[in-house]
């Protein structure tokens, strides 16, 4: 790694991590609804996997903000 | 220390019940598909629990607790940023395509997307990797049983082989997945009991922090400085979060195989995605015990740190609870070993034996071969287990083995699904170049496995793109159903693929 990388402060790690989690959540929400529910027996709200993904990412953001 | 009384009863009851329960599913195995893919009947919640049971093994209890003792809560990165985002990526991008393709293995999918050479290389790599992993698992079991039960390591290896072999050889993936469900429950009950008692002993969370922070100021920070020799924060993000973790969750045969046995595409996706929730809880079971051991006994040094978990059991738990936690450890071990055995047999049967040695034989023949190969891998694991002592830490050994070819594998799989212009030659040379880069960096340059993973991924990606642009594009008929954009834009193809997958073709 270059010298400039060695000079990066520790908090950059948290910023990159949070941006990464947000990007994953946004990417999940950009999947078409039909694609998400493909193969599901019904389209009830709890089967929306985009919601599951978002909840998981919110939990991750809270953890990485805390530690 | 040896166990007795109620502890011994709990352990024996558990070790007897699991193979009996697993053996029950033998009656459902009539065909090769029943054996390797559970007849494509698994619901999402079984897939989720089986994925975590497969993922959390003996090395987590031993290695992750040891890692937490050494590095602190940063070890939890392997369960959080090093898992959860990749599980979402896997669930919503990779798993649907594997499932729709109706394949049994990840190498089989790559063979369809690229060419036979890629499939063979991947099959050999996975075959060897899974075999090595079995050795790591078995050795971790040997250490634990030696520490806790006081029996010789070789006896514990044989005991493990018998217990796991009975139902894995006979019942295949259905037996493995269903026993994983039970074993995950045991793991959580035992793990939570240990953690709660440990926290109570050290004075709660605040007591834990106050006892460790003065001597280990970074032990409650998720990211360690860049000059940390083992897990610097940039390496955790570039190597672990961006490469090793997606490679594991999107391309690992033992993980993916559960989703291939799903009863529908939604169950396959939901199974992988829901597994992220118990996964987030895993540090409570495997990382906190390492910190608790450090708080109670800060004098462990060198390889002794890998024994932080058994030390905790031996010195903290009362009668009854010790047996339960020990059963939880065995559950973690067995649920990983059985899955790895099943996947190793699947790869060798489908991608090697069926492709090169005996084509077009009867379904019953391949079923028999799968069972024989499972037994062969049990014997291999016993023989290979002592070799793992040459590595400095169990968990690091595991990740080191992964990093050699996980980066290149993820690179070609990502391009294979995400970029229709990727050609068979781009995939092949990208894979070869990536493995060459990782081998050189790891063995010759001695680079950290986190950076090895990153650079081998980047190298494989670049070579794949360059070679693909220089070679003839693949015909559209070959790519149908295998590349994300093409399927997303074509509802008709989606229907055809779903019908094909449901028909098991």
- Sketch the topology of chain A as an H/E string, one letter per element: HHHH
Q: What oligomeric assembly is this protein in?
A: heterodimer
Arithmetic mean pLDDT of chain A:
90
Q: What is the average of the pLDDT values of chain B?
A: 86
Q: What can you tell me about this protein's structure?
A:
The complex is a heterodimer of chains A (67) and B (505). Chain A is mainly α. Helices cover 69% and strands 0% of the residues of chain A. Chain A has helices at residues 3-6, 11-29, 33-37, 49-66. In chain B, 76% of the residues lie in helices and 0% in strands. Chain B is built from 23 helices and no strands. The mean pLDDT of chain B is 86. The chains are: A mainly alpha (67), B mainly alpha (505). The A-B interface holds A 1, 5-6, 8, 10, 13-14, 16-17, 20-21, 24, 28, 31-32, 35-41, 47, 49, 52-53, 56-57, 59-60, 63-64, 67 and B 73, 80-81, 84-85, 87-89, 91-92, 96, 220-223, 225-227, 233-234, 236-237, 241, 264-270, 273-274, 276-277, 280, 451, 488, 494, 498.
Question: Main traits of this protein?
Answer:
heterodimer, A: 67 residues, mainly alpha, 69% helix, B: 505 residues, 76% helix
Short description:
Chain A has 4 helices and no strands. Chain A is mainly alpha-helical.
Topology, please?
The complex is a heterodimer of chains A (67) and B (505).
Chain A: H1 3-6, H2 11-29, H3 33-37, H4 49-66
Chain B: H1 5-23, H2 32-37, H3 44-55, H4 58-71, H5 84-101, H6 106-113, H7 116-148, H8 153-202, H9 204-212, H10 233-251, H11 253-260, H12 265-274, H13 276-286, H14 288-296, H15 308-316, H16 321-357, H17 363-384, H18 394-418, H19 424-444, H20 449-470, H21 476-479, H22 484-488, H23 491-502
Helix pairs in contact in B: 1-8, 1-16, 3-8, 3-11, 3-12, 3-16, 4-14, 4-16, 4-18, 5-10, 5-12, 6-7, 7-8, 7-16, 7-17, 7-18, 8-9, 8-14, 8-16, 8-17, 10-18, 10-20, 11-16, 14-15, 16-17, 18-19, 18-20, 19-20
């Amino acid at each position: 790694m270059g010298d400039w990388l060695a000079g990066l402060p520790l908090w950059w790690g948290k910023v990159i991590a949070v941006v990464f989690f947000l990007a994953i959540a946004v990417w999940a929400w950009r999947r078409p609804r039909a694609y998400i529910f493909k193969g599901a027996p019904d389209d009830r709200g709890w089967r929306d996997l985009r919601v599951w993904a978002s909840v998981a990412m919110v939990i991750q953001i809270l953890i990485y903000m805390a530690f | 220390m040896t166990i007795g009384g109620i502890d011994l009863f709990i352990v024996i009851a558990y070790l007897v019940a699991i193979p009996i329960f697993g053996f029950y599913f033998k009656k459902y195995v009539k065909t090769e598909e029943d054996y390797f893919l559970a007849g494509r009947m698994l619901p999402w919640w079984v897939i989720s629990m089986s994925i975590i049971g497969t993922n959390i093994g003996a090395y987590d209890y031993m290695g992750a607790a040891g890692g937490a003792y050494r590095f602190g809560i940063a070890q939890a990165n392997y369960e959080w940023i090093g898992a959860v985002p990749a599980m979402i990526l896997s669930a919503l991008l990779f798993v649907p395509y594997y499932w729709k393709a109706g394949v049994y293995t990840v190498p089989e999918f790559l063979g369809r997307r690229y060419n036979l050479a890629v499939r063979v290389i991947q099959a050999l790599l996975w075959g060897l990797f899974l075999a090595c992993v079995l050795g790591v698992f078995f050795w971790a079991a040997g250490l634990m049983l030696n520490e806790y039960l006081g029996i010789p390591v070789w006896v514990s290896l044989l005991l493990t082989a018998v217990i796991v072999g009975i139902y894995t050889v006979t019942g295949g993936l259905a037996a493995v997945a269903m026993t994983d469900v039970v074993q995950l429950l045991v793991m959580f009950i035992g793990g939570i009991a240990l953690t709660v008692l440990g926290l109570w002993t050290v004075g709660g969370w605040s007591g834990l922090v106050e006892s460790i922070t003065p001597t280990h100021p970074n032990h409650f920070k998720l990211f360690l400085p860049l000059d940390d020799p083992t897990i610097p924060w940039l390496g955790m993000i570039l190597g672990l979060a961006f490469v090793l973790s997606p490679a594991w969750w999107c391309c690992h045969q033992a993980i993916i195989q559960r989703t291939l046995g799903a009863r529908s595409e939604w169950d396959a996706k939901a199974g992988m995605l829901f597994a992220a929730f118990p996964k987030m809880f895993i540090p409570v079971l495997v990382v906190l015990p390492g910190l608790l051991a450090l708080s109670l006994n800060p004098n462990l040094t060198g390889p002794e740190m890998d024994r932080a978990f058994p030390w905790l059991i031996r010195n903290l738990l009362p009668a009854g609870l010790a047996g339960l936690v020990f059963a939880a450890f065995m559950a973690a071990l067995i649920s990983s070993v059985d899955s790895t055995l099943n996947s190793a047999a699947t790869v060798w049967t489908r991608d090697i034996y069926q492709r090169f040695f005996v084509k077009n034989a009867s379904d019953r023949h391949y079923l028999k071969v799968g069972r024989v190969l499972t037994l062969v891998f049990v014997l291999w694991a016993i023989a290979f287990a002592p070799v793992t002592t040459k590595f400095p830490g169990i968990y690091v050994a595991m990740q080191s083995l992964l990093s050699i070819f996980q980066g290149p594998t993820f690179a070609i799989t990502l391009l294979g699904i995400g970029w229709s212009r990727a050609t068979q030659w781009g995939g092949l040379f990208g894979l070869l170049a990536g493995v060459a880069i990782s081998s050189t960096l790891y063995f010759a340059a001695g680079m950290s496995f986190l950076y090895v993973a990153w650079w081998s991924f980047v190298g494989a990606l670049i070579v794949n793109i360059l070679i693909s642009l220089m070679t003839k594009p693949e015909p559209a008929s070959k790519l149908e159903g295998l590349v994300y954009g093409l399927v997303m834009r074509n509802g008709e193809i989606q229907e055809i693929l779903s019908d094909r997958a449901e028909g098991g073709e």
